[in-house]
Write a structure and sequence with these properties.
By secondary structure, the chain is of the alpha+beta class. It folds into 2 domains: 3-82 and 154-233, P-loop containing nucleotide triphosphate hydrolases (Rossmann fold), CATH 3.40.50; 238-357, RNA polymerase II/Efflux pump adaptor protein, barrel-sandwich hybrid domain (OB fold (Dihydrolipoamide Acetyltransferase, E2P), Beta Barrel), CATH 2.40.50. Helix content is 24%, strand content 38%. It has helices at residues 42-50, 98-103, 110-122, 138-150, 168-185, 196-202, 220-225, 230-235, 330-336, and strands at residues 3-12, 17-26, 30-35, 57-62, 65-69, 74-75, 83-86, 156-160, 188-193, 205-210, 213-219, 240-250, 253-258, 261-266, 274-279, 285-287, 298-310, 313-319, 323-329, 343-348, 354-357.
């Protein structure tokens, strides 16, 4: 049976109003990310759902059970909502051992101790029972905090920037482990983050939030590949966003003038229509010289203006009549012998060029 979290409320502050309107439907593990820049209202939405903040108007309910309804003077206490909340800093008790942190507030008895042993095994904490939080790595602290949340059998897990307390190296190691643990817990999850990589690796759905409003929601793939406007495109990290004008269109395939270049894309707009085009960097392939036979509709000659190393990847800036960004592997950069000032050929399929009508 599916569980439905219904959220439709307004929370007011002197400098911003937070408006949340969405549903999270799940019959087990499913993650929705609340995603946007710092200060946009993500954590406030999470805290209102948890019962740690009170909205001024609207309603929050779980399977029809009202958690918050100011008009009816309903505000269910956090502990009665049966949610698990994982804070940014994990909020572990520094003076308690791992075992006592996990079991804090639970009734005493043999069944409770068996549950603690079971959850410690599931979260790979066996052997750390008597350690203090300061004796654990960042990843181990996260596992303790998540085990403490899950052992109470919550109906819903709320995670507020769960990897922000970790350094970059540890964050990369723990990210995949976190998804595995959440799947093992088998609970619906709401995740707050400003990191697009976390959204893409941890979430099936995403709510894009800006200045207190949800401006797009949908599957992660849909939102990241087809943003509804330039604001969303910027938030989800679309590297190439430029103005264009449709100069002709036939069978849904449009010729769009962008700067000094014509780009092909699938569009439904009329001739002369002003648009914005969006191209993600990972959808651009680079070649030295003629790429040969290709099914891609866009084969653009250009010149490399900048190469930026990003670990195993390189971000390549290209002038091809308009600024274009490509993301390639370090091996590809070396195989192609790419350097600033060199000529290069950018190949882009028309299907990955997203067209947004202006206005």
């Amino acid at each position: 049976m599916s569980a439905v979290l219904h959220v439709d409320f307004e929370k007011r502050f002197p400098d911003i109003n937070i408006n949340a309107d969405f549903e999270h439907i799940s019959d087990g593990f499913r993650t929705t990310a609340l995603f946007g820049p710092s200060g946009c209202g993500k954590t406030t939405i999470l805290r209102c759902i948890a019962g740690l903040e009170r909205p001024e108007k609207g309603r929050i309910s779980w399977n029809g059970e009202a958690w918050s309804d100011p008009d009816r003077k309903i505000h269910l206490a956090p502990q009665k909502r049966r949610i698990g909340f994982l804070f940014q800093d994990y909020a572990l008790f520094p003076h308690l051992s791992v075992r006592r942190n996990i079991g804090y507030g639970l009734p005493s008895g043999s069944s409770t101790q068996e549950s603690i042993e079971d959850i410690m095994g599931r979260f790979k904490l066996t052997g750390m029972e008597n350690r203090a939080p300061r004796e654990l790595s960042g990843g181990e602290q996260q596992r303790v905090a998540l085990a403490r949340a899950v052992i109470r059998r919550p109906r819903l897990l709320l995670l507020d920037e769960p990897l922000s307390a970790l350094d970059m190296t540890t964050r990369q190691m723990v990210r995949s482990e976190l998804r595995s643990m959440l799947m093992d817990a088998g609970k619906p999850v709401l995740l707050v983050t400003h990191d697009p990589v976390k959204v893409l690796t941890l979430a099936e759905r995403v709510l894009v939030i800006n200045e207190g409003d949800i401006i797009q929601q949908g599957t992660t793939t849909e939102v990241f590949s087809r943003p509804v406007n330039k604001t969303v495109a910027g938030i989800v990290g679309t590297e190439t966003v430029h103005h264009g004008e449709i100069i002709s269109i036939r069978d849904g395939l449009a010729d769009i003038r962008v700067g000094d270049t014509v780009v092909n894309a699938f569009a439904e707009e009329a001739d002369g229509k002003l648009v914005d085009i969006c191209i993600r960097a990972e959808d651009v392939s680079l070649f030295r010289g003629n790429p040969g036979r290709t099914s891609a509709q866009n084969v653009l000659d250009g010149r490399i203006t900048e190469l930026i190393s990003e670990g195993p990847m390189y971000r390549v800036s290209i002038d091809c009549g308009f600024p274009l960004t490509a993301l390639i592997s370090k091996q590809a950069k070396e195989d192609l012998a790419l350097t600033p000032g060199e000529s290069v050929c950018a190949v882009i399929k028309a299907t990955v060029v997203h067209v947004i009508p202006k206005g």
